[in-house]
Amino acid sequence: MSEKQRFDSPEFQEKYHCEIPLGSFCSGRGTEFRLWAPTAQEVALRLYSTDGSDTCLRQIFLSREPRGLWRYVTGEIWDGLYYDYLVTVDGVTRTTADPYARACGLNGARSMVLDLERTDPEGWAGDKAPPLPPETVICEMHVKDFSWDPASGVPEAYRGKFKALCLEDTTLRGEGENPTCLAYLRRLGVTHIQLMPVYDYGSVDEGGDPAQFNWGYDPVNYNVPEGSYATDPHRGEVRVRELKQAVQALHKNGLRVIMDVVYNHTYRPDSWLWRTVPGYYYRQNEDGTPSNGSGCGNDLATERSMCGQYILDSVLYWAEEYHIDGFRFDLMGLLDVPLLNRIRRELDRRWGPGEKLMLGEPWSAAGTAARPGTVLAHKGNLSQLDSRIAAFNDTTRDAVKGGQWNAQDRGFVNGGGLDAGRLAGCIRGWAGPEGPVSAPSQTVNYLSCHDDWTLWDKLVCAAGGDPASPACPPELLRQNRLAAAMLFSCQGMLFFLSGEEFARTKQGVKNTYRSPLSINRMDWTRAWENRDLADYYRGLIALRKRLPGLRDKTPHAAERILSVGAPGEGCAALLIDNAGPDCPWKRLYLVFSVRQDAAVVPLPDGEWDTLADGECSFLWQEPRTLSGAAALAPVSALILGQR
Ligand code: CA
Q: Is 330 assigned a catalytic role?
């Protein structure tokens, strides 16, 4: 039997599956170490006083117990000590940190014993997420690029750190007028902040130049925060406390927090998981080489029971210990459907249905060598996923602005032509009996995320412009506003990259995962210069929360689209049933024009309130009334409501 066959076998699972909490645990009563290493002949624990100390204080052998568990228990309190393991498998001894560590020192190289209670910030027991919002509007951001810009008004010591997320009243250049960072997000009206990876990743030296940048899709310690975002990466308790403080501040400011989790691969194949149980946590091809569906050199074998258990335990840990409100699964198409459904059930059981979000990318970089019969959570299998696990919708993304593979490719808003039927597909989130998903609850609509060009750069490139130019031509701003109006008309969750609302540019660089901060940083001066566009987004977000016809996440949402038409050349219009509690408008009429000149379109019978047009998305606050026909400016949207 090959190693692959052995690890995939029901007998291995039967004998070794183990659901006891793993890791190190420290309280006033003593300290305990538990490691799952079923193939090990010997496991030794080494203790150190600091993360960098060369002197091992003690070496202790763990005892083997049933189900592959190794354990050591002491009445001594070792809170604050650092440790690693020597794990011997098939006569080879490897040094490893604890894959279940919840604290660590510099670069995650050594684990740390930590009494987690002492990391709780003041008031943590009372920390609660804001009430569930009427709509989910997610803004994706990166801890370092968010506050790196000196114009953010964030004090230098906190720039690029978790601590910057705790500052509630920063302003542009500290001048006391125009909000930046947290204050800016609060005003924008988004409901969820999606943090790009904040677990401990490997591509940035935590003790090196503070200006190093990486997105962080390279996990080292899945259950520990990243040290380069902490004010002290050596002392393990600091990063834990500071991330909790950031979550607490976001909650206090009305924002829920989603964590980007990368359970599909590890930074290096020679990870703590590998060193502890060589081979078990990774998929192998038949010839024994590592499977590489992630494009990053290795794939976790989520279908093996203790790998799935590891992922489940990790998600539950972040939700419990850090009060995280949602999880975005990177390359979800590499994870198996039963595991994701199990995570969904466990989150619901512990926190109540709907309280914790789940969303993910329903694809992978390439094929993967999962155990035969494994059902993976890629696009083709979405019908088998729980209807409250949402998938990023690249069909709408590409339809609105053009595909991501070719800079010249155009979509609805930038000269690719407006097809009313295809637009209607976008508006219903591609949900319904013939769609890939049954309900909009499974759809995340977006035009930009950290991957690929920013929306602005895509519009510039498709127009043949120079994305390195700071100019913002009015015709491209019109395209951007129309794209936003389309996005905020789509049924399903809504998502955008931070700064999309102010025409964020990365100077045309498509994959900025390790580009310098001069390209990646949020440019708060540009946010101010393009405040009219940001206000347009702000109005759309506020309006969207008031429109039950578009918020509907049920399998019947598509039935709310009463008619779809093309009321003129270059125009598309949809009549929407908008009936719902506390909403004055029973029907909506959404009109989109991509014409280069003004358009006049006939309206359905009756009087219509103008809720938003191509310039202003706050008209709904004091609507004008129209009947018979309506005029649209070039490349613009018109959103009307009937009482
Ligand atoms: Ca790190």
A: yes
